[in-house]
Amino acid sequence: MSVYPKSSPAKQKGVVLLESLIAVLIFSLGVLALAGLQSAMIKNTDDAKYRAEAAFIAQQKLGEIWVNSQGFANLGSYAVVEEPVAKLPSGATTVTVDANRLVNVTVNWTLPGKNFVQHSYTANARIEGL
Fold first, then answer.
1. Ranked by mean pLDDT, which of 43-47, 53-57, 94-98 comes out on top?
2. What is the DSSP string of 22-91?
3. pTM of the entire structure?
């Protein structure tokens, strides 16, 4: 007398194949998700690189104005509109000086492949004498 029930092979046909196909489908979706994450990571890394470069350019320009503004009489001569920046894609720097000696440096750039999305970074400082 057998303790185990008899299996009916007719009802089990194709079950292993179906389980294998489902496993391949789940694995494929996982690999596709990892590829999407990798793509997003590369895009965000490039964006962060451009933001860091823009911050450096703006702070460098403020430092240059701070060091070279002797007597503060020629502070208005640093005002520029859309000066090209070679280190950023379609980059430009704008410097404005108001009556209260507040200097604003704005760096604009456009990411490669996205012609209509313009990014900007603004830094400002009040230039005063000692």
1. 53-57
2. HHHHHHHHHHHHHHHHHHHHHHHHHHHHHHHHHHHHHHHHHHHHHHH-GGGTTGGGG-EEEEEETTSTTE
3. 0.67
